[in-house]
Amino acid sequence: MGLPAEDQLSKVFAALADPTRRNMVTRLTESDATVNELAEPYDVSLQAVSKHLKVLEDAGLVTRSRDAQRRPAHFEAEVFDLMTKWIERYRRQAEQRYRRLDAVLAELGENTTEKDNNTGAES
Amino acid sequence: MTTTTHPDTTVVADDTVPAIHITREFNSSAAAVFRAHTDPDIFARWCGPHDLTTTIGTWDARTGGAWSYQSSDAEGNQYGFYGSFHEIRPDELIVQTFTFAGYPDGVALERVTFEELDDGRCRLRAMSLVDSFEARDAMISSGMEHGVKEGYEKLDKVLEGAHG
Predict the structure, then answer these.
(1) Contact between A97 and B39 (Cβ < 8 Å)
(2) Interior angle at CA A77, CA B145 and CA A48, nearest 5
(3) A4-76: what fold?
(4) Predicted structure pTM score
(5) What interface predicted TM-score (ipTM) does this complex get?
């Protein structure tokens, strides 16, 4: 918390929470596109598309070239990859935990026949 | 799209609510895996990372009961966790809350289901819900002190390029 980059990651998650923006990102993974091109499949105003694009830009997921007249939007795959990496790390931690559980279950399986399940209150 | 799949554990960061979904299959019955979550002695054997020792405090695995445990490392640092067992349905379901004692204002709502499969196997599904995407993202990035800093630096660089 508090670190600017961490806020940025939150922005990435929040930006992707919207289905229209997710579709726009999917479209942009194929190739760069202008606001007009991005608006085509939707029944929404160019302003609405620009607004979504701004959210994606603020999250760092999309950049727009300054020089070109059309200012096509470009998908920044690296930011997206980073997020995927963090989740993969989290997944590996969960997997390690469950492998420990596998081992415990294997040990228990050798000398128990359950049926005293939902105890617990002791100590 | 924020999904990572693997033959073993699957993790999904929910796009619509600040939740994490985990799915995992076990070569044991639903009853055995349920018991490993509700019996304090068994739970203590697998819950923490290898380098931490888990000491159970309160443990009353019944609907309306409570739990707590402490994790200690070799240097003697202690991390406390506690919560309530909100709903316990033997061999099927656990709904509980989870709080890190170092941040008592934060709480996760956890729902774990145990589904019997063929051949004595079972599928566990765990959902952890918190009250903001920021808190969820902090959960995902926690315990990664080494990698995370490097990640920030990389992200900073990418963003610098994007705005510069």
Answers:
(1) no
(2) 110
(3) Arc Repressor Mutant, subunit A (1.10.10)
(4) 0.67
(5) 0.77
